[in-house]
Amino acid sequence: MPAPDLLTAELTLTGRIRTASNATFVGTIGDTTVVYKPIAGEKPLWDFPDGFLAHREVAAYLVSEVLGWNVVPRTWLRDGPLGEGMVQLWQDADPDQNAVDLVAAGDVPETGWKHVLKGQDETGRMVALVHEDTPELRRMAVFDVVVNNADRKGDHILAMPDRHRHGVDHGLTFHRDHKLRTVLWGWLGETLTDQECDGVDRVIEGLHGELGRNLAKLLSAEEIASLGARCTRLRLTGRFPAPSGDMPAVPWPLF
Fold this sequence. Notes:
By secondary structure, this protein is α+β, with helices and mostly antiparallel strands. It has two domains: about 5-95 and about 135-235, no CATH class; about 100-130, no CATH class. Helices cover about 25% and strands about 20% of the residues. It has six helices and ten strands. The protein has helices spanning about 5-10, 55-65, 135-145, 195-205, 210-215, 220-235, and strands spanning about 10-15, 25-30, 30-40, 75-80, 85-90, 100-105, 115-120, 125-130, 155-160, 165. Helix 4 packs antiparallel against helix 6. The model has no long low-confidence stretch (mean pLDDT about 95).
């Protein structure tokens, strides 16, 4: 959990992220830079009518911690200038790295990258959506399956200078129905590694203990039951799932 001063010290707003669909601010708590998303600034969504997006963001962090892969930066609930909301430690991503990219259809790298789909850009040029083939990004893809992430856009992946990859913007997670929409389909059908299976097992076990108790404060009983069912199904198959259902398999826009 965050240090007590991050929970209680004054949160001062320093800017607003205008590209976000919900009210999202940058602020400071002492010398620490944070992202602040007040519940009061959330816009209702037809397919996520229950609960608060901020609660889902915190729930995603709790699951990330139990997985043990540091996918989600430290995230917590607290009061702020616009009321209670989600607060997350700011991350300084490397602008020269791209974990996900659009390239000309004929220029898909042969190694180190996974091809997801091909289409036309706004100029009619044929392009391909690709993402890097790394353990860090694979773990994020497993995390997205577990939390049922409905909005894994390319820009929701922060490429850190040390090659770590953080995932952010997890308000559209934990729906009781299948909602997986992601740009990370490159490992479709591949077998999970032992490390990935161990992480899913930790979530299954945690749901019977502290993780389950903490999630009960943030999600509905049905959503928690669906989380457990997804984890069990993932362990039984032992493979990255394929898209299913009538919903698009990728979010829009992709970035």
